[in-house]
Amino acid sequence: MPIQVKGEVLDVRRSGSYHVLSLTAPGITEITRPGHFVTLGIGGEESALLLRRSFAIHQVQSRGVYGGTLDIVVGVQGNGTRWLADRRRHDSIDIVGPLGRPFVLPKEKVNCVLVGGGYGTAPLFMLAEHLRERGCRVDVIVGASTEDKLFATLELKRVATSVTTTTDDGSMGTKGRVTDVLPAVMEKSDAPVVYACGPMPMLAAVAEIAAHYRAYSQCAVEEAMACGIGVCMTCVLPIVGDDGVTRMLRSCTEGPVFRGDRVRWNDIGTIPPDTLGAPVERGH
Amino acid sequence: MTRAVFSTGPIGGNKPVAHINMSTNLGPLEMPSPMLTASGCAAAGRELDGFFDITQIGAVVTKSVMMQARSGRATPRMAETPSGMLNSIGLQGPGIDSFIEHDLAWLNERGARTIVSIAGGSVDEFGKLASKLRMTPGIDAIEVNISCPNVQNRNQVFACDPNLAANVIQAVRRNTDPRMPIMAKLSPDVTDIVEIADAVVRAGATGVSVINTLLGMVINTDTMRPHLAGVTGGLSGPAIRPVAVRCVWQIRQAFPDLPILGMGGVRTGRDALEFILAGANAVSVGTVVFHDPSSPIRIHNELEQELIARGFSSLSDAISYAHRGPDPVEEPEVGEDDLITE
Lengths: 284, 342
Fold this sequence. Notes:
A: Elongation Factor Tu (Ef-tu), domain 3; Rossmann fold; 5 helices; B: TIM Barrel; 8-stranded parallel sheet; 4-stranded antiparallel sheet; 16 strands; 30% helix; globular
């Protein structure tokens, strides 16, 4: 069950073009699993920015005096993320978490491929650690448009078995997309499961490649949310259920991790006509 | 069950805090607290129960339910706006049967007072929803959502036309237990909200819920197209609070005894106090729940302290207090000596 706590900023540091915030979050960190996220209140109590911002949990630590702390990775995109990047030590932040359904971990020691795009790499660190602890081989592919938008690739090398890097402009690693190198990594690893986090088009492509190699994919989606706790219904995606029926499901509570073969990637931004409760004719 | 960590005050807190009687009522529905959730901002209460005890607020107002399951509109469904947001959900929901079987059953088991919000595409659908609910125990009131702006056709915003609004309320009244409180949810997007309130009251509404969202729009300046897939959406949040307070005020002036559930951008106890003073018998917290999921209880506690600070000994004494006559002019005390003239 998620809780709401008043967290304290312990540290804000730069990493490439991102900011990493370390926050105290007593009660949240203890029950966090890879793939969980938190939402943060923005701008203090009188803020004109009403909507909470959601962030995948990058790392959790138990630090004696502070209780648990967690790290999130912020890419400055607008007013809300700018406000977060401008926080300083001892500032307080309203935190709700851990939220969402985390990554499903394999029961056995199997090879795993992890794919991260941009700051979507953030939740893969904790995931890689958990998989390694279980004795899994962990091959990671990280990609971004440019080198400064890759997140903490060096640190990732410490937890992964191998790391392959791509950039759109070739400023680091292989020039191209993560999906350009994914088939080769799949061939070598023969992994039965692929984990991915990043922009929607990347996830769609990864899910397709995983399916081609008959691997099971676990995709953590990034969808605009207002509440993060399942009450506002803004973050829905068309998802095929076990019964074969498509429903508009909430990314926050029924995700953010979905099976790649269950997301109707090409239909995001629409209501597919065969969705449960889809509009008939031209009515509303 | 885990509760909000920073909940302070009489409910859930440890500090010794002064108390007054915070009970109120919407017609026959009596509640120990004037704070309610708002339809569409609390689902069916279950998610929020992890953040505060939903049995301690006045009532949970559930998301508007229709006869059939409904997918709602395509995404993007929301946009952040100054001190508010636009939403364009389009009444996504499971349909009345599934709602009764799962959501309402859970609320009853949990022991929460429950106001069920219903929405129909036609007068007939509202009537059918009401008769479904008539067979169902565990409902404290029905809120009739005749003002959802996220519909294909403006003719379906029944609350924009006094006759259509009255037809819907009549259909609900005819198909429900005569003792069941019916709250008509009104739209601020009308020239004269008092005229609509008058129509629904004559048609059998017990009271009114004011206000629903205002129709709004955002253009995405990157794509240079409407930001919402549904093009227009409902504006909510603190940005609309003055509009909501004005609507409560106008309706209270016209109907001194009508039960009014006020809502629109309530964020603090002081905001709730504004609604109470303007004439609301109870107050819903809507969009601010997205910002602060434990806000209904926090605002209850803040409101109680705001009332105490102003010398009220009960919430009911403050309802409509802003409508009182002019304060008595303090006559200077005239002593005998002053009467002596030279």
